[in-house]
Amino acid sequence: MKGKRERKNHINFLHVDFAAHVFFTILLDFAAPEMFRECCWMVEKRGSVGETTFHVCFLMQTPTHLALGRRLLRWYPKLINDVYLSEEYYGENVLHMSVVAEDPTMVKYLLDQGINIHERCYGNFFCPDDQRPTRNDSLEHELVDVNPKTNYKG
């Protein structure tokens, strides 16, 4: 196992090469260990909205894609914790996609595999329209700060 650390905009990327895949952790310079997020898929190899191939399999929801997603999860079990990393969909994971697709079989499979049921979506897409201009990131926590007053009735 060999590691490499590089500095980019206050974020350190720790790359650890294994035989078939690369595994890394995003580390904030001043953050406590409990503030770290472990990701299995390299940030540089993700899609334009922070998705992985694993996410695309669940997004497409065809039997072939779902079978491929199960196989990827069997080979790389830490993929289950990967979330979208873009500002628009940050925090969305494959459990959210399976629930939206109303696929109880896949939801049960993901629960049996140990997916984090407390994962929350913080992306701009999931924020009411009137709160979007007040969104602010914090270096103290992963949550997005927004004005609590909204006209959202849902």
The side-by-side strand order for the widest beta sheet comes to: 1-2-3-4
Please report the number of helical segments: 4
H and E string? EEEEHHHH
Looking at the structure, the CATH topology of the largest domain is: Serine Threonine Protein Phosphatase 5, Tetratricopeptide repeat
Distance between the termini: 49 Å
**Main sheet summary:** 4 strands, antiparallel
- Unreliable residue stretches: 1-28
Oligomeric form of this entry?
Answer: single chain
Structural account:
There is one protein chain. This protein has helices spanning 53-60, 63-75, 94-100, 104-112; strands at residues 2-8, 11-17, 22-28, 37-39. Helix 3 packs antiparallel against helix 4 (104-112). With 154 residues, it is of the alpha+beta class. It has 2 domains: 1-39; 41-134, Ankyrin repeat-containing domain (Serine Threonine Protein Phosphatase 5, Tetratricopeptide repeat).
